[in-house]
User: Which sequence fits this backbone?
């Protein structure tokens, strides 16, 4: 049975949008997948737990941290975007650590990014592959696309955010560099 069902057979647990965005940087393909079924969501509550579960199910045993076979799983939790809790702005990324080559690494963020990802209809993102050129993920009104990032390549964080805002033609987009 697939971890990401084509059609849900159990109810979607509260606090979830129901979709994960899968991005293959090698091919440039982007597709939506359903979240796992309710028993998995109830067992692995929160962004880090669900991201770790997905990563451990999908990461090849011979993966290298900087190899195209590696994946990065970024997930929000059921409280993200609810506006009621301090944890309602969190997103966690898990990956094969380049420091050890054999253990998982984790990064967490808070701010606008996770909340806006939820507002776009996604609970998380699975990144795989390696792009032949710099790209960034742009999502507008639930429509994701990979865009050329050559105009921001090598800039610092704040300059990247400013330049991305210029490129998309608005001062209001929320960026995660």
Assistant:
């Amino acid at each position: 049975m697939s971890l990401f069902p084509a059609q849900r057979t159990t109810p979607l647990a509260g606090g979830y949008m129901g979709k994960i965005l899968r991005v293959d940087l090698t091919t440039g393909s982007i597709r939506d997948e359903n979240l796992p079924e309710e028993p998995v969501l109830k067992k692995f509550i929160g962004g880090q737990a669900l991201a770790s579960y997905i990563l451990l199910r999908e990461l090849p045993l011979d993966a290298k941290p900087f190899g195209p076979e590696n994946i990065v799983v970024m997930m929000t939790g059921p409280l993200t975007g609810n506006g009621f809790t301090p944890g309602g702005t969190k997103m966690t990324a898990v990956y094969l650590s380049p420091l050890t080559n054999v253990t998982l690494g984790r990064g967490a963020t808070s701010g606008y990014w996770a909340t806006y990802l939820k507002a776009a209809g996604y609970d998380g993102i699975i990144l795989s592959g390696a792009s032949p050129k710099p790209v960034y993920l742009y999502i507008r009104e639930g429509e994701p696309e990979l865009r050329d990032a050559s105009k921001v390549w090598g800039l610092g964080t704040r300059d990247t955010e400013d330049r991305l805002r210029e490129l998309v033609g608005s001062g209001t987009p929320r960026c995660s560099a």
